[in-house]
Specification:
Length: 137
């Protein structure tokens, strides 16, 4: 009898657990707008690229590469790539959280990315609302 109650109790919790997993599955991504023959893109690829997916930042916001001369993917239609490459745009649930224009070097990149991830945490906080007086970009 206690097994039936335990099973029923577990099933009652299932919708909440699935909702929490769905929120985590909606991972943010760091979109790298790039182009061929971009020396700053090549520098980022050399200095950051191999380590990025192994970092906490890379797990929180996996890298997605988009060539600025290729057709824009449908899910990024509202995100402007900018004129300079690389441009890194932190996107969460189709919304731009912020961007890094250019590659300022390894030390500055990690610091700027950290600031974007803090914005992401603020945007995801329960009850968070955008302040229309504060530009996101």
């Amino acid at each position: 009898m206690w097994r039936i109650r335990t099973t029923l109790s577990s099933l009652a919790l299932l919708p909440g657990l699935l909702a929490a997993q769905a929120q985590d599955a909606r991972a943010a991504e760091l979109v790298m707008f790039e182009q061929q023959a971009c020396e700053w893109c090549a520098m980022w690829n050399e200095e950051i690229g191999p380590a990025y997916p192994k970092t906490e930042e890379g797990r929180r916001a996996p890298l997605r590469r988009v060539d600025i001369h290729a057709p824009m993917p449908d899910d990024l239609a509202d995100i402007h790539p900018g004129r300079f490459t690389p441009t890194f745009v932190l996107v969460d649930d189709g919304e731009e959280i912020g961007r890094i224009r250019g590659y300022p070097g390894e030390d500055f990149f990690w610091g700027l990315l950290g600031q974007l991830l803090e914005k992401l945490d603020t945007a995801r906080a329960p009850g968070a609302m955008a302040d229309p007086a504060v530009p996101v970009r």
